[in-house]
Amino acid sequence: MSRFAGKTIVVTGSGKEKGLGQGILRRFADEGANCVVSDLLIDAEAEGVAEELRARGAKVTAVACDVSDPGQCQALVDQAVAAFGTVDIFVNNAGIGFMMKPLLEVDPKDWATVIAVNLSGAFYCTQAAAKAMIAGGKGGRIINIASQAAKTGFPHLPAYVSSKHGMVGLTRASALELGAHGITVNAVCPNHVTTGLGGQQNEYFSKLLGFDSVEAYLANMSAKNPMGRPGLPSDTAAACAWLASQDAFYVTGEALNVSGGEEMH
Ligand SMILES: NC(=O)c1ccc[n+]([C@@H]2O[C@H](COP(=O)([O-])OP(=O)(O)OC[C@H]3O[C@@H](n4cnc5c(N)ncnc54)[C@H](O)[C@@H]3O)[C@@H](O)[C@H]2O)c1
Question: Are residues 235 and 217 located together in one domain of the fold?
Fold first, then answer.
């Protein structure tokens, strides 16, 4: 398929092997999109992600961006436009989910860091991407990678859960104002996926909940999931591809669960 031939996608926090961002870019590369890999640093790992996308046939550029800095978010969009002429699809994927502590022990600095990246970062990038899409005059798609933690509470992750709930609010508020420009804004809410971030959560929660091993914790998670397994990056990527496709033009302001039925509201 080449549904996204000639389109440009930017994914923040996409420079890690096995991350959701890499999975999303693989799917869009396979469907013909120009890809912008972005992460805090464009290090050897991020260069490797970019190189693999080129091997899949995509035109790729890689741009460093700390999404907690509004100026860097604007520069990311500017560099994407300079490289490919437009930004058609922007995915707010960068996130911090490794600060796990009981509510009463969370340091205000850690709280602020998580909100700055997960929520404020998505806001800064939404502003910058939407301005470029409006200037381009062809509409666009903004997709926020929220979480199951946007729909329900989890212990020892108060800042993460709050930031992800906030992302759904940002999605709805942005969708209302950007629809007039042909821009849809939606969130995707994946359940657990064993990425770098997900792996750190596995280590912590398997101990917290008294499992003998991470494997036993994951087996229990699979047994409780209606579809019998945790999520995969390709599940989230498929949802993003649909939301970015012409078929989803009339869908905006939604927060789509991609959880094998683990989350249903
Ligand atoms: N893995 C899961 O179980 C899961 C489930 C639901 C949602 N998510 C969300 O998916 C997204 C991707 O996470 P992942 O699981 O692929 O983990 P990951 O650790 O592979 O990806 C997170 C990425 O964000 C980057 N990042 C961190 N701080 C940044 C900053 N200030 N600026 C730019 N980039 C920054 C990291 O370098 C990393 O590449 C996150 O928003 C996460 O909350 C993950």
Answer: no
